[in-house]
What we know:
The protein folds into three domains: 10-257, Rossmann fold, CATH 3.40.50.620; 269-339 and 467-558, CATH 2.40.240.10; 343-457, CATH 2.40.240.10. By secondary structure, it is an alpha/beta fold. Helix content is 26%, strand content 24%. The strands form seven sheets. It has a seven-stranded mixed beta sheet. A seven-stranded mixed beta sheet has the order 21-18-19-20-14-17-22, with no helix packed on it. 38% of the residues are buried. It is elongated and about 100 Å long. The structure holds adenosine-5'-triphosphate and magnesium ion. Adenosine-5'-triphosphate is lined by residues 32-34, 42-43, 45-46, 228-229, 259-260, 267-269.
Amino acid sequence: MASENKNQNFIEEIISADLESGRVKEVVTRFPPEPNGYLHIGHAKSICLNFGTAKEFGGRCNLRFDDTNPAKEDTEYVEAIMEDVRWLGFEWAELRYASDYFGQFHKWAIDLIKAGKAYVDDQSAEEIRANRGTLTKPGVDSPYRNRSVEENLDLFARMTAGEFEEGSHVLRAKIDMSSSNLNMRDPVIYRILKREHHRTGSKWCVYPMYDFAHGYEDAIEGVTHSICTLEFQDHRPLYDWFIANADVPSVPHQYEFARLNLTYTVMSKRKLLELVTLGIVDGWDDPRMPTVCGFRRRGYTASSIRRFCREIGVAKADSLVEIELMQHCLREELNKTALRGMAVLDPVKAVIENWPEGFVDELDAENNPEDASAGSRKIKIGREIYIERGDFMEEPVKGFFRLSPGKEVRLKHAYLITCTGFEKDADGRITEIRCTADMDSRGGDAPDGRRVKGTLHWVWAGDAVPAKVNLYGNLFTLRNMNDMEDGKDYKDYLNPDSLRVAEGALVEPSLAKAAPLDKFQFLRHGYFCADTTTTPEKPVFNLTVSLKDSWGKEQKKQG
Ligand code: ATP
Ligand code: MG
């Protein structure tokens, strides 16, 4: 089933042509994470590309753990990766582990030795590096390069049997020490590592290198289009060399696309792990992390992430994508789906002095003005309410349409109130606002039709629930983390204000009942989701994204 779409990305174009020419019958892709960390948003792009493209062409996509390096891998990561892929909305055709193929890789390595195309090198890692040459200087042959096949077979068998120390011997492909492509200068294909592997235990003490293993993994699984990031472009000749020099069951091809980079964040697992282990963030799923689980806890939806991945497209040149585009995709969705609620983050009490003693009114509040089917809820109001401290000014500046002495505002869904006075403490801090309500304005409209500009959110003192609200900002202050000054570390750019906590916030009762990850629009504030730690007694919310859509605005201006 070839797609006819004219807006195909270059990978879809290649696949369409391959299906048309008959080079491939069924599209097979794979998503091959190394289980050495949690998935980040860059991986999400790769997931959407691999799973999405296979689906689009009626093919299949495997989830394959590229677990060839026991030093850094862990079962915790395997579980987390599976959860994230599923959460993003994809299901693998087959679950595979590169470690399942260790036996086959080893046989192919022996085949290479027998064919005179691989040799055991006794040089140290430093010597190998030094003798590799540079872009302008050819490499120097290892003194062990011309060992006999017998000697190589014997040494490799003894490496495999655990007779040698780590670092004392490696197996190298015998290709071309003067190749203009440094990757082709006799790359290491096996090394000694005396580590427990999370799946094969202590069975092996030699492990294959990524370049050697990856193409073979693809060949074993019948992968037709092996999609990876641009930094592997120079490795492609090597990928093809390994495939051409083994008796493989299928011939895969590698295609490279540009890595996703996002503004104000780092994307490498090594750095993300460091943020976690140093305690700079509260775990891999800290809502400031660019991990899939971090975005989930922040309140992002899988569909908005998929849409974002579609919008950014698939390019052949690296670029930096604005975080605002991700926020825009999410905001557009949440505007249609998130239930509205009122939360006062920095409360100050307001007393409605003409309110009938003991009277509690119950009002109708629509749950989502964008979606009639979301229905409405009842909200209660009485004599004492809380409003946002920032919604009151003793001496209003020009253009301030909120509450100030003598001014009238609307309480959302409720009544018009006019400020009649206020109290201050010794420090000049407002402690209480006094006002009167127009008791004929129930629902928020003045009976005489007078215009009231400002509308405030509020909660009733009688049923508001104290909540903790985490207000998140960017984790880093530098827009493009590739622009770090010389000698600086990415941690020098941490944003000290990436988390502000509104400890004394008050939320309306409907919000307090939220289950973890339920999403809301807090009126006039933004989109929030209930944190994974929320309880009805002690609700906790995370700021997902503010209401202001700078990205959408910018596009409109340009469009
Ligand atoms: P990192 O450098 O962050 O540790 P990685 O490339 O080592 O990432 P892998 O687990 O090896 O992580 O990656 C699995 C797949 O995800 C690979 O095919 C890789 O090309 C892809 N991938 C990783 N980072 C990005 C990114 N920023 N944008 C797009 N694809 C990515
Ligand atoms: Mg990697």
